[in-house]
């Protein structure tokens, strides 16, 4: 590392707030999907386009986000992201006023753009803020902040509206979005004033790279890192299935006819938070990041099978096991894919951010499968994704070229 790494407590606290904001913004989708289905009479596949619109910007703006970071730095990019979030939630107000699904999709797209810039800032920042072999521990701490926000979002909306989700109409959304706009403006100001030092990965300056990062010293392009490219595919699949596990709970509970379906939004986050706590305790002291990825992949595979094979009224609870498997995938995949990139660190980070577009593709396919085969059978989509992630944890991350 090119900076003193003795004390990260204060930067971690501020970055934790930002990870919470990311989870909160995404968690709003789990409330919107069933509300839009009920109010606009759209299909499941159409309603899940809200999630797709949120994640497509990762593919489009992953590289521009990295260029923005290079130009104005991590901290200013984070602040810019929060202002973009405020704009996005401002657009949800006319969307609700006109009851226009295309406008909702556009507002979700702007929200996703803000998310892409924020994710491009905070994920590499937390990865290179300290030693790379303990990156999964730091990301696990951030993950707890992020995943706890997912169930908070629908509960917060229900609280402000004063109704449960089944009784909520589009016209009830105005007040919550005004409050959320104010919150994100305040967060933008806080992040701009936060004491966050600029950080760089080993070899990123290009100074004496042969010593600090010899593997990257001989490379001329980011496309010459097979472990990175395979990691992008693994991350694409992971983000997709984790989004399914987190973003479909309320809709699945409603499909099963369970009362107060919004309360089931906490099922998957509980599993994920348990996994993150294990990551904080065991990585890297007792297990490596690669070992954690293999263990979690196996747990997720078992969880996927139990979700689709058990009785429907019980299957929703096994989403917690599936989510437990997802928990340490992000903390492990990110540093494994980012290892030894040297001067290509920001370019590699932008590719990983673009890979988050899996959150657009996999949930949309889930919605299509739900319409064709039912909500429970739609979860079969998770199994092949976890099988590939298991391969990456066993062998994919080891592949290097000379």
Structure description:
With 402 residues, this protein is mainly alpha-helical. The protein is 75% helix and 0% strand. It has helices spanning 9-40, 44-47, 49-72, 74-98, 101-128, 135-161, 174-193, 209-212, 214-217, 226-247, 249-255, 267-282, 289-309, 312-327, 329-338, 345-355, 358-373, 382-394. The protein starts with 8 loop residues before the first helix and ends in an 8-residue tail after the last helix. Residues 1-6 have low confidence and may be disordered.
List keywords for this structure.
globular, disordered N terminus, 402 residues, 18 helices
Number of strands: 0
> Low-confidence parts, pLDDT < 50 over ≥5 residues?
1-6
> Total number of helical segments?
18
User: What is the CA–CA distance across the termini?
Assistant: 24 Å
Return Rg in Å: 20 Å
Structural class, please? Answer: mainly alpha
Give the arrangement of secondary structure elements.
Elements (H helix, E strand, L loop, with lengths): L8 H32 L3 H4 L1 H24 L1 H25 L2 H28 L6 H27 L12 H20 L15 H4 L1 H4 L8 H22 L1 H7 L11 H16 L6 H21 L2 H16 L1 H10 L6 H11 L2 H16 L8 H13 L8
């Amino acid at each position: 590392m090119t900076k003193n790494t003795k004390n990260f407590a204060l930067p971690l606290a501020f970055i934790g707030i930002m990870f919470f904001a990311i989870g909160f913004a995404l968690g709003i989708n789990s409330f919107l999907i069933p509300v839009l289905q009920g109010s606009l009479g759209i299909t499941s596949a159409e309603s899940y386009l809200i999630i797709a619109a949120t994640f497509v910007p990762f593919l489009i703006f992953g590289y521009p986000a990295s260029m923005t970071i290079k130009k104005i730095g991590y901290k200013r990019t984070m602040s810019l992201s929060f202002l973009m979030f405020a704009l996005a939630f401002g657009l949800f107000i006319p969307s609700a006023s006109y009851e226009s699904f295309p406008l909702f999709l556009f507002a979700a797209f702007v929200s996703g753009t803000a998310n892409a810039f924020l994710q491009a800032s905070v994920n590499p920042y937390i990865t290179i803020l300290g030693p790379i072999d303990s990156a999964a521990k730091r990301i696990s701490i951030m993950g707890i902040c992020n995943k706890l926000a997912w169930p908070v979002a629908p509960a917060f909306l229900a609280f402000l509206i004063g109704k449960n989700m089944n009784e909520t109409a589009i016209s009830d959304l105005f007040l919550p979005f005004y409050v959320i706009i104010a919150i994100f403006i305040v967060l933008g100001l806080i992040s701009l004033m936060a004491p966050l030092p600029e950080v760089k990965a080993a070899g990123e300056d290009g100074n004496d790279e042969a010593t600090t990062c010899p593997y990257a010293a001989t490379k001329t392009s980011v496309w010459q890192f097979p472990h990175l490219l395979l990691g992008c595919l693994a991350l694409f699949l992971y983000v997709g299935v984790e989004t399914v596990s987190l973003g479909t709970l309320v809709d699945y509970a409603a499909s099963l006819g369970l009362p107060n379906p919004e309360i089931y939004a906490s099922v998957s986050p509980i599993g994920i938070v348990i996994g993150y706590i294990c990551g904080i305790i065991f990585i890297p002291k007792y297990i490596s990041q690669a070992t954690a990825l293999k263990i979690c992949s196996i747990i997720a595979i078992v969880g996927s099978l139990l979700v689709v094979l058990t009785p429907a009224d019980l299957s929703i609870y096994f989403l917690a096991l599936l989510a437990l498997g997802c928990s340490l995938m992000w903390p492990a995949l990110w540093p494994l894919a980012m290892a030894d990139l040297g001067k290509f660190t920001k370019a590699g980070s932008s590719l990983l951010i673009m890979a988050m577009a899996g959150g657009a593709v996999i949930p949309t396919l889930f919605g299509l499968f739900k319409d064709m085969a039912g909500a429970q059978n739609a979860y079969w989509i998770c199994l092949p994704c976890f099988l590939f992630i298991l391969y990456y944890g066993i062998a994919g991350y080891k592949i290097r070229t000379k």
